[in-house]
């Protein structure tokens, strides 16, 4: 289905500089995934809500790419931040070097809240499209930049507004009294159709708030939905979506890692499939994970079943522990691998952060349906 080639790509909705892929395993993997996405986006130009790609991505000769010094890039970003009156927000899943220069780092909930406290006129959101959209929705008067407009989310993509509206209409026509609860990983167009927005941190509390006589339609993550059914004892209608990163963890990978580290503690994100959650010692979203490892003083080894960049904030917050990504060890070499990297988050690079500050684009534009999404987002996450 996909071509795997080593190439260099330019584009991404306005970024003017080429994206360089080096020779490391992770760079090569990112390059391969980017090619998959290139074909995906070029074949379906209107994939992201409110985003029409006017020009297809181009594949260019890698010899034209100039490698830039990360430290020089960081200095340049600092200067541009001043010049452009900007604040940088970074999700825990973007590269550690971006987290290091960010003013705020956190999970989706924390960053949505942080965005409302920003005093500068510009927000650079180093994360994925739905997160930057939320920042714009909550701060309509600010300019919100996303370093790469093609940083989408497979989970958000799995639930489109039209099919959701159709399902809601059919359920209501059949006499079902439904409340739609959406995980924050959804587009603003989908959020505008929902009654509640949840994150992995507050999902349980909100699901428990819904009156018993109502049926819950939970979108888009079936794994998180199933986990919530288990912890709340509440049956729900589950949308069949999932995250491409958390879907790839196999029980076998985890068992192999556990065998290599018999004393280790398994911590997993609730977006992981049920068979992974069943063998985990602790289940929680990224912020909950961070707080959990910080609460343990004695040095431990944690096997981390979520996006691999999460190791950076965990190690920074609790340096006494060792953190091993799952799947984390290549049997052949014993080296860690990056196959649990989110290709969308990996689209964020220092170079693109610099470029979006320099050129003032790509920018999230206000859409009509943001007003409805704002109402539900504010009610769910900020009160
Ligand atoms: S890790 Fe999964 S849920 Fe998170 S942004 Fe990437 S694709 Fe979306």
TrEMBL record:
Entry GO CC: cytosol
Cofactor(s) needed: [4Fe-4S] cluster
GO molecular function: 4 iron, 4 sulfur cluster binding; metal ion binding; quinolinate synthetase A activity
GO-annotated biological processes: 'de novo' NAD+ biosynthetic process from L-aspartate
UniProt-listed Gene3D superfamilies: NadA-like
Keyword terms: 4Fe-4S, Iron, Iron-sulfur, Metal-binding, Pyridine nucleotide biosynthesis, Transferase
Cited InterPro entries: NadA, NadA_sf
Signal peptide coordinates: none
Pathway of action: Cofactor biosynthesis; NAD(+) biosynthesis; quinolinate from iminoaspartate: step 1/1
One Pfam family in the UniProt entry: NadA
Keyword 4Fe-4S: yes
Protein name: Quinolinate synthase
Organism (species): Stratiformator vulcanicus
């Amino acid at each position: 289905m996909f071509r795997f080639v080593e190439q260099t790509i330019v584009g991404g909705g306005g970024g003017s500089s080429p994206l360089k892929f080096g020779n490391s395993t992770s760079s090569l993997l990112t390059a391969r995934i980017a090619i998959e996405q290139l074909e995906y986006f070029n074949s379906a130009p209107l994939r992201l809500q409110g985003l029409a790609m006017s020009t297809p991505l181009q594949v260019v000769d890698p010899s034209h790419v100039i490698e830039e010094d990360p430290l020089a890039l960081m200095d340049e970003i600092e200067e541009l931040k001043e010049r452009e009156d900007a604040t940088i927000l970074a999700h825990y899943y973007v590269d550690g070097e971006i987290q290091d220069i960010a003013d705020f780092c956190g999970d989706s909930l924390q960053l949505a809240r942080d965005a409302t406290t920003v005093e500068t006129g510009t927000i650079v959101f180093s994360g994925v499209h739905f997160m930057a959209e939320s920042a714009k929705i909550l701060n309509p008067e600010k300019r919100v930049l996303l370093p790469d407009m093609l940083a989408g989310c497979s989970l958000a993509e799995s639930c489109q507004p039209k099919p959701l509206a159709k399902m809601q209409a059919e359920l209501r026509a059949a006499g079902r009294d439904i409340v739609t609860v959406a995980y924050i990983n959804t587009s603003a167009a989908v959020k505008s159709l929902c009654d509640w927005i949840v994150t992995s941190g507050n999902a349980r509390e909100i699901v428990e708030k819904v009156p018993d006589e109502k049926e819950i339609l939970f979108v888009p993550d079936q794994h998180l939905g199933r986990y919530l059914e288990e912890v709340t004892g509440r049956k729900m209608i589950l949308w069949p979506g999932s995250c491409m990163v958390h879907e790839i963890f196999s029980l076998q990978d985890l068992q192999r890692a556990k065998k290599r580290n018999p004393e280790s503690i398994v911590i997993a994100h609730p977006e992981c499939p049920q068979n992974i959650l069943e063998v985990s010692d602790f289940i929680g979203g990224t912020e909950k994970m961070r707080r959990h490892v910080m609460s343990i003083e004695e040095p431990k080894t944690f096997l981390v079943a979520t996006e691999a960049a999460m190791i950076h904030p965990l190690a920074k917050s609790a340096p006494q522990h060792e953190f091993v990504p799952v799947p984390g060890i290549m049997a052949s070499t014993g080296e860690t691998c990056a196959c649990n990297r989110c290709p969308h988050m990996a689209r964020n690079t220092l170079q693109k952060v610099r470029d979006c500050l320099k050129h003032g684009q790509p920018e999230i534009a206000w859409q009509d349906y943001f007003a409805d999404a704002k109402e539900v987002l504010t009610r769910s996450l900020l009160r």
